[in-house]
Specification:
The complex is a heterodimer. By secondary structure, chain A is an all-alpha fold. Chain A is built from three helices and no strands. Chain A is 87% helix and 0% strand. By secondary structure, chain B is α+β, with helices and mostly antiparallel strands. Chain B starts with 6 loop residues before the first strand and ends in an 11-residue tail after the last strand. The chains are: A mainly alpha, B alpha+beta.
Chain lengths: 75, 727
Amino acid sequence: MATAGTEGLIAIGAGLAVGLAGLGSGLAEKDIGAAAVGAITENPSLFGRAMIFTVLPETIVIFGLVIAIMAIFVM
Amino acid sequence: MLLPESMSRIVIVGTKSRMEDAINAFYSEKSIHIIDHTTGDDGLSIGTTTEATSKASERLIKVRSMEKELGINKHTKTADIAVEEVQSRISAGDVEGVEDEVLKTVDARNDLTQKITELNSKKNTFELLKRLNELTLDQYSGYKSLAVLVGTTTDDASSVSIEDAEVFSSFDKKEGGVVAVFVKKENKEKAFAALADVGFTEIQVPACTEKVAANDACAKIDAEIEAANAEIEKCNQTLEELKEKYMSFLKGCDEELAIVVEKGSVPLRIAVSKYSYVIDAWVPTKKMDSVKANLERKLGDDIYVEFQETRGRKVEETEAQEPRFQNVPVKQNNGRIVCEYEYATSLVSVPKYNEIDPTFLIAIFLPLFFGFMVGDMGYAIPFIILGAYGLKKTKHKDWRAIALVLFFGGIWAFIFGLFFYGEMLGMHFVGGEWEAGTWVWHENHVAVGGTTVSWDWILGAQFPSWFTDAICSVGAWGQEDPNTFGVGVGKLEDVAFLLKLSVYIGVIHLLIGLVCALVNVTKQHGVKEAILEKGGIVFVFFGIIFLCLALTDMMFSKLELTGGTPLIELVLAIVCLVIGIVLNAKAEGGMQAIMSLPEVIGWILSYTRLAAITMSKAGMALAFNYIIFGMIMTTKATGNFQDGVEIVAFDPMGGAIMLIVGILLFCFLHLVVWTLGILSAGLHALRLQFVELMMRFYEGGGEAFAPLSEVRKKTFFSKNANNIKEV
């Protein structure tokens, strides 16, 4: 279990894990999203596939979240 | 149920003289999918449309143009009309009659609009000439040796000096200037040059012989415009009357003629010779016999139907056929409720003939995941109501799909909210518990200076035990600390448990996907190929699971890897991983085999979003509830103490204004959480189907089964249900 002194560091670490992972997902998703909207405008039947590509990088932020939760609840 | 319906190929041969009857018979079967004929060296050519079809398409264009003129569109509500009535009126020339009537009024209206445009331009000119009030309109024209230059200027033209000319001008700083110059024809060019200095732009004055002032002419034009507008209004009224009178007939005609044209274009897709026609078609295998019997009954000796093959799912079987017959149309084989989810599958693509249709799995897991993530009785009830209303009212497939997820997802959310989380509107039903004869609130509670609000605290009464016993708690799942917090799984308290649960759900979901992949390849190529192609990833999957179990035991349960369960798990993991990597390396190459390892971890961890979304909704609701009950609404001291802090109770009578503000804010803030719930829970539930599940096995790219059939919405058969004349 964490001592009183390290609790703050764990919290900062958890915050960084989610925040930076979110930033990464956002950067990846912005380009795909723009291209996907363009593709759907041309051909609406591409919606499903466009959505799959757009949400692919989302998993990165989930990894960050898992690490953050583990840091807070498990460490 | 999982594979698309089995299809059979037939050949239909018939005499050309009865082709029209035959096409009607095909339409009434609603299960014949024509394979387009491509001209080859078999002595057959593509058929041609009949004269009746050209006439019908001509009429269809007329009907659609009339509908446009009268403002009849697909949203216009009209009464249904009998097919026999439409047909008899069309053959009696009613379309042309109605067209005459409509066109006459439309032309009149167009003429009037044109007239008004002309009058307006005339009026604009006269408005300018009004400012030269010493001249009457007849003075601007009718000279033999004089040229009249009339126009606008940007500067004052009164100072312009032109030889042998008379200049009338008026200037206003805001509106600019107007000038009329009467000059000898031979000096016209000079006058132009002089006027250019003041920014002259010439305007044409309409010829006028009457001696009338511009002012009076303007008034006259105004009266004419008014009269024309009144006429247009009359035309519009007439058109409105015509619309009322004919809209039902026109929409009926539109539908009927479209069907006639579609039927008429069938010969363009089939092969014909001088006296006969030949059609290759796909029919669902189970309807084969009835189609054959029905066609032979209706057309007797004039038709011959021959069965060709029932297509299996093996790839070799398909590849042995000529290219035209390789593609089998796909008729998804789902029940009444599951088929509503076919739209979700089609967003990715239509399944192939020889692969599992994932619609059934989507129908199960999409609402389940949605419900798990929402997991709140309070949010579930509006979801169910909205979903049921949507399903009852809407016919648009996009909205139906959303309503469907809301309805079934809402039911799951209700079940999870009541029995699993024990929660309504972000608040647990039970916040305290009996300990040694007294009701104790847990420390993290508004009652004793915490942040969590619960229903029993708000109501000031405990729920009966039969109710609370029905709600599950983490203790029931074999955790070390039973009743960690209240009754029900705490979304923000039992995080580790929820994360584990999400991962287990993910493992099951992915396993179903991998089994489907194995089944697909087995159906397409055989068992050996299935193991070689997909077996590797299945072994890697199990290997990673065992490895994770061993690592969890070592890291969190502090067990040694050298003995007991962790050792067994580790050995199993190594065995599975080695087999998996070898199989993968053989199937897809060494690099791909190594890459698949982190990929599998990624798939599984992706399911932790189930817990993450649940937590984010609960976190928002917790904050909002604390704002409302802990900060806005009033509480009263009870005089009892727990851990040295006085216990407070909710006091609805404390202040009327704060109560109203609190309730309004409560509704608004929970509406926010609810709306975000649709977006995040809905999208993520869909993503887990599309990406995590379907990418394990689904290829898609099939051609949808499109049988010949009439779609009638506005017309109906009044005399008998069977529209095909029995022959």
